[in-house]
Design brief:
With 467 residues, the chain is α+β, with helices and mostly antiparallel strands. Helices cover 27% and strands 22% of the residues. This is FAD/FMN-containing dehydrogenase.
Length: 467
Amino acid sequence: MTFTVTHSARFAVATTLDDLAVDLDGSLVRPGEPGWDEARCAWHLDVDQHPAAVAQVRTARDVVAVVNAARQCQLRVAAQSTGHNAAPLGDLAGTVLVRTGLMRDVEIDPVTRVARVQAGAWWMDVTNAAAEHGLAALAGSSPDVGVAGYTLGGGLSWLARSHGLAANSVLALEVVTADGVHRRVDAQHDPDLFWALRGGGGSFGVMTALELQLFPISEVYAGVLFFPAERATEVLQAWRAWLPTVPDTVTSVGRILKFPPLPDLPPHLAGRSFVVVEAACQLEPGTADQLLAPLRDLGPELDTFRPTPVTELSQLHMDPPGPVPGVGDGMLLHGLDAGLIEAFVAVSETTGPALLSMELRQLGGAIHRGSPTGGAVAALDADVALFAVGITPTPEITAAVHAAITAVRYRMAPWSKGRSYLNFAEERKSGDALFGPEIHARLREIKSTYDPADLIRANQPVTPAGR
């Protein structure tokens, strides 16, 4: 259904930010006011956002009020839950930043296996609630990643090779479009908008909630094999040879990690570099052990594989437990041959300590097949997704990390698909590079229908056709 939030006289459309501040159930924070720096801060701490105001919304009605007021004030609107991929948004000048972090309710229907999730929820909110019923969502690899942004960008989970991208698990979305209409969109209602939102990013409206299909999975066999970084070529070539032997119920990552010498890291990891294989297996432990045997025969220094509740899968990738300054970027690669591994290891060595992590994430399976009823990004046509990232505590280190990422892109270019995966694109990309020319053109037409004035901003924007 499509419905418009009704405003009484008290809730008339605000024509100034002062009016909007009074109208909200949440709060409006402006430059110089108490709490401003905290309100404008993204998860990536080196992203310096300076919007016209930050609206900390509590309800869908708040979002409607913000969108209408921004239009009246000739400002734009950008939504953000956590800001894990905020860098491409820029400084947000002339924009009201809608922070949805106060909207984190999660409702689980164990009979239909559906979760209704408010737009500010983190994946830990969903996985914990679903696990109480023996269910799992196609969650991100970090517990504090926002559900909304991750899902709008496609969503690569540890269950993706068997169940596809998270965007394909979306049954419905509740979104406020640029005209101030609060819509519930699905396959029957605003189907073009429903298609665009599933993988096309946040350019089409401000999400207030989404409904996700859940899956009857409570435990997987998961862990990490750690080897000294000096064995990177040997281990990653063995991982490459192992990949064709695994079923779609296995999703894995080959990765080079360079841990900084931090006191809060375990002593056996701090200040050391490793090549690791991470995997989640939806298999019985005995079957998984047999499958892992060729990698274990290499003699890892540390083996953490064990039966793992789905609530603990978010720890597998060892992402930072809180906000950090960092720079990263990714690319989709094809032709997973010996030369690709050699180039990957070589560029890791030449970039030195600048990059904390370089990973190759296994694709294929349901990620490649997609869904016939899927949205703008229903599949990824590549063998692996590469992502490289470095921590950037100082300007000098930031420059070194940028140079290292440029070196990675250049060295891995022979295997590039010429396409990027939106959630791994932490620098601005062209729409054709993210979606391909045909899908990008369709997205622009849909943007023209729902937001011809380009009111809604996204980190990887889709502009209206003709602009």
